[in-house]
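Record type: monomer structure entry
Structure origin: computed from sequence
Chain ID: A
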Amino acid sequence: MPDSANSEPDGATTVTTGVGRAGLPRDQVPAHFDDGAGDYDRLVGLNPGYHDHLCISARRMRLPHDGAGLRLLDAGCGTGASTAALLAAAPRAEIVAVDASAGMLERAQAKPWPSTVTFVHSTAETLAEHGVTGPFDGILAAYLLRNLDDPDAQLRRFRDLLRPGGVLALHEYSVADSARARLVWHAVCWGIIVPLGRITTGETALYRHLWRSVNAFDGVGALRDRLRTAGFDAVTSETMTGWQDGVVHTILGTRPADDPAAAHDAGPANGAHGAA
């Protein structure tokens, strides 16, 4: 057993190489998701609460009228679990789902979806280049922000993509503010996630990246501060249940209704709002 929640178990460094203290180089993350796409749904299906907690984050966006008249962005949709959560919370909304991993996106597109759901292969930073433009009434970004080179710039881009009053929901692991959460995260990663990854795929780089990138990521307080600095208001956070209590969180923020930078937007938001 390692001495701390930030120590890698003996011998683990010999399993694979290229995973630094903060995880994989961020430009390499999509390729590793490509490689792991075939087993991804099976692995996350073994995680109690994974799908339910995505649905909780989508519901916490408080999208009105089953999403009627709303346009939503699922940023970092992966194989479509977060897209399904948005669809369950707002079945009448138009949903644009994007991901940087072609392999993950192919898995998502192969599933049955209504005509109101569209998938686009794009990084979060280059959405406009791939035809994804605002305004959106809501954005869900699940397990995305810590995998980007410049989280602050991306938060500003998300703000600019929202209508005034539109809501951003980050669904993310965050353990830095809690010693208990760090210990739970370490135990789950090295007791379950990394071994399962090795058994299922024969390699562990992606799963060691997950462990390290979460360890190096913001605490919830710092993440709320990032949203405020990026121009969001009504910023709040809530955690989940089960072993994810204190480990997985929803962080919510809204684009101010009186944001002067939104003068070019076409009209007010269609009723989307964040938690008070």
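Annotation 1: The CA atoms of residues 70 and 270 lie 6 Å apart.
Annotation 2: Residues 10-20, 263-276 have pLDDT under 50 and may be disordered.
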